[in-house]
């Protein structure tokens, strides 16, 4: 591993090989694909939803992560997301947050939003970024995640006569997570 502490150390590293040559991949998907080719079965991402010492952790290998990210990006594209559209996600720290982030980067522009915010704060952010898709957990035991986003939808102005209280100008994807192993 190469360490650097000073500007001269950084310049020395850059003289060996410019940054654009070190990271030649032009997209996140290409970067992940290169990593999968080198380490397909190594752990890439792990999350333990419960905090007990004997609770299991859900772990993705690099191959599984690339597959999940590709599925997310394809889902966003199928909902009409292109490179200039925003995908927001309101998720706690979990594998789905990472997958939504990377999938969102592959499909368009991504905006993570803290699930700790209130409905009015989320509404302001989602209006500001003009989100076309919002990803969140379905209502989950012992949390407000999912409920806050549904409340946000109720704050949205309805184009034309309201047909549903949750009708909004963006698609709403609910991630269903099983709380048991």
Share in helix: 40-55%
Largest sheet: 4 strands, parallel
Report the count of strand segments.
6
C-alpha termini separation = 37 Å
- N-to-C order of helices and strands: HHHEEHEHEHEHE
Q: Kindly state the mean pLDDT as a whole number?
A: 78
**Coarse shape:** globular
Secondary structure category = alpha/beta
Strand content: 15-25%
Outline the low-pLDDT stretches: 155-170, 176-181
With strands numbered from the N-terminus, the spatial order across the biggest sheet is 4-3-5-6
Gyration radius, rounded: 20 Å
Number of discrete helical segments: 7
List keywords for this structure.
181 residues; disordered C terminus; two-stranded antiparallel sheet; alpha/beta; 7 helices; four-stranded parallel β-sheet
Structure, described:
The protein has 181 residues and is of the alpha/beta class. The chain has helices spanning 7-16, 19-22, 28-38, 62-78, 95-107, 119-129, 147-155, and strands at residues 43-47, 58-61, 86-90, 109-113, 131-137, 171-175. The strands form two sheets. It has a four-stranded parallel beta sheet with strand order 4-3-5-6, with helices on both faces. It has a two-stranded antiparallel ribbon with strand order 1-2. Helix 3 (28-38) packs antiparallel against helix 4 and helix 6 packs across helix 7.
Fold topology:
Layout (H helix, E strand, L loop, with lengths): L6 H10 L2 H4 L5 H11 L4 E5 L10 E4 H17 L7 E5 L4 H13 L1 E5 L5 H11 L1 E7 L9 H9 L15 E5 L6
Parallel strand pairs: 3-4, 3-5, 5-6
Antiparallel strand pairs: 1-2
Helix pairs in contact: 3-4, 4-5, 6-7
């Amino acid at each position: 591993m190469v360490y650097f502490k000073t500007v001269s150390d950084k310049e020395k590293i850059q003289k060996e090989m410019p940054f654009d040559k070190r990271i030649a991949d032009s997209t996140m998907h290409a970067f992940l694909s290169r990593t999968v080719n080198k380490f397909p079965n190594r752990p890439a991402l792990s999350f333990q939803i419960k905090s007990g010492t004997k609770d299991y952790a859900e772990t993705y290998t690099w191959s599984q992560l690339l597959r999940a990210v590709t599925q997310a990006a394809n889902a966003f594209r199928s909902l009409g997301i292109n490179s200039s559209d925003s995908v927001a996600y309101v998720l706690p720290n979990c594998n789905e947050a990472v997958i939504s982030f990377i999938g969102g980067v592959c499909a368009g522009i991504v905006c993570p939003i803290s699930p700790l915010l209130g409905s009015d704060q989320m509404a302001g952010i989602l209006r500001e970024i003009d989100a076309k898709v919002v990803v969140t957990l379905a209502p989950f035991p012992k949390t407000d995640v999912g409920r806050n986003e549904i409340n946000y939808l109720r704050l949205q102005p309805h184009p034309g006569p309201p047909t549903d209280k949750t009708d909004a100008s963006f698609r709403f994807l609910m991630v269903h997570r099983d709380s048991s192993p």
